[in-house]
Specification:
about 400 residues; alpha/beta; 6-stranded mixed beta sheet
Length: about 400
């Protein structure tokens, strides 16, 4: 077993059960990509069993802090079973569920979503890549699923020195030789939504907003919102929610034509009037500015942009981008109107995001009531030792006026 020795004073994060060790904290030692190593303090005390990544700034990701534990196929089977058991206990009324959420489930670099009878997984670290086959076997055994699609095409893999990989990882042969389609229909909040695990964002869909979409439908109904603008709409989850809440005019804006086509299909799939929905293939920032010039206003607006700040180093630039779109949205929001605004940037904390949105309101000369703070669904957990896992944060605001 190869050993990684940390510099004096750099053991504090592992002692707090934080799973990351950065390159600058290592005094000596090395290993192959994904190889299990013993991590010790400068004076030789055991700290963790971990996966080594020679290419990443996060040089070590801890598997276990128990010196007696072995990192083998049985270890991954236990971790997967524990994660799946937690999701079953949550009683989520959907067949689209996040089963493995990386560090929160003690499996750094592994993301797994279940869409009906199909699993979609991202192996994003050298450690999960090395143990891919054992993890795949454990996933199928714990869930009873037989189909596992790999979506390891995130840019994060490049930082690990890994090439992108997509395709079926587990796909049993059928008697007639046919292949299971990569498109799936899931249900949430009483609606039907379709996705394609081979082509959709991330693993296929954004399950982390499930509860917020349900909340939005309820608030639209309770507040009598009729005109709704859904920005960065992707395949229209919030647009369906708005129509379910009684909205009569919903506009979805996104820069992806295929995503908007699926959003339009979702409207009719759920029995809503196609004429009540408009899909705009356009830049959100430019569209917001154009609507202001045209004098358009809305009863409710959703801002769910992509990740503007992947790390704290990008926070300043991202803050300006978040502030700009929120300022424009405030100007388009009717008095008494509802704004749901989000950030999925790990480099932007909840407190900073609140300050950014408050500053946007000041610039727009708009004040608002904060109805509630928003976060990811419970199947995307955050642990007390890994606060970085709290990536999605949002605010539900009612404009004063």
């Amino acid at each position: 077993m190869k050993t990684i020795t940390l510099r004096a004073g750099k053991e504090r994060s592992l002692l707090r059960r934080h799973p990351w060790v950065f390159q600058g904290s290592i005094a000596k030692g090395g290993a192959d990509a994904g190889e299990t190593v013993r991590v010790e303090s400068h004076d030789g005390k055991f700290l963790a069993w971990a996966a080594f990544s020679p290419s990443s700034q996060i040089r070590v990701r801890a598997w276990s802090f128990d010196e007696a534990e072995r990192i083998d196929a049985a270890f991954f089977q236990r971790r997967v079973e524990q994660a799946v058991a937690l999701r079953r206990r949550l009683g989520i009324d959907s067949n689209g569920i996040r089963l493995i959420h990386g560090e929160a489930d003690g499996l750094p670099g592994l993301i797994v979503d279940q869409y009906d009878d199909l699993l979609s997984a991202q192996f994003l670290s050298a450690g999960t890549e090395r143990w891919k086959d054992a993890i795949a076997d454990a996933l199928l055994a714990a869930t009873g699923c037989t189909y596992l699609y790999e979506r390891s095409d995130s840019g994060v893999r490049g930082l690990e020195g890994l090439a992108p990989v997509t395709g079926w990882l587990r796909h049993p042969e059928t008697a007639d030789g046919s292949r299971r389609a990569t498109e799936v229909t899931i249900h949430e909040n009483g609606w039907k939504l379709t996705l394609d695990v081979a082509e959709g964002h991330k693993t296929g869909y954004y399950l982390d907003q499930r509860d917020n979409r349900g909340l939005f439908a309820r608030l639209v109904r309770e507040m009598g919102c009729k005109t709704v603008l859904n920005c960065y709409s992707y395949t229209g989850g919030f647009s369906v929610a708005a129509l379910a809440g009684g909205a009569t005019e919903v506009t979805s804006v996104d820069s992806s034509g295929p995503a908007l086509a699926r959003a339009t299909a979702h409207v009719t799939l759920n029995g809503f009037d196609a004429g009540a929905h408009t899909a705009l293939d356009a830049d959100v920032n430019g569209t917001l500015r154009r609507f202001i010039k045209e004098g358009r206003t809305f009863d409710a607006i959703v801002l769910d942009p992509p990740k503007f700040a992947p790390s704290a180093a990008h926070a300043d630039r991202a803050s300006r981008a978040y502030k700009d779109i929120n300022r424009l949205a405030f100007k388009l929001l009717n008095p008494g109107g509802l704004l749901l605004t989000f950030s999925c940037s790990g480099g932007i904390g909840a407190e900073l995001f609140h300050k950014i949105v408050a500053g946007a309101g000041l610039d727009a000369q708009v004040d608002g009531y904060l109805l509630r703070r928003l976060e990811a669904t419970p199947d995307h957990p955050t642990t007390i030792t890994f606060p970085e896992g709290e990536y999605l944060k949002g605010l539900a605001i009612v404009r004063k006026g």
